[in-house]
Amino acid sequence: CWTNNFKLHRVSVHRTPSSSYVVVKTNKIDIHGRYVADLFYSLTDKDAGKIFREGRYLNQELLDKGLAKLA
Length: 71
Known about the structure:
Layout: E1 10-15, E2 21-29, E3 35-42, H1 48-54, E4 56-57, H2 58-64
Antiparallel strand pairs: 1-2, 2-3, 3-4
């Protein structure tokens, strides 16, 4: 489940080949030992804090397009 109410544990920013910047936020590990992550991105901003606050939320975009589903 993805939520806006979380404790921020780790944030990192990576530049992708398509010139977008991605912030990966993890806050827990699932029952199989995998990280649960929220992904935010921007095509222009490089600032992690700004991307986190104002960037596009990839998780929700994937749900909206039917490319992902909640477990």
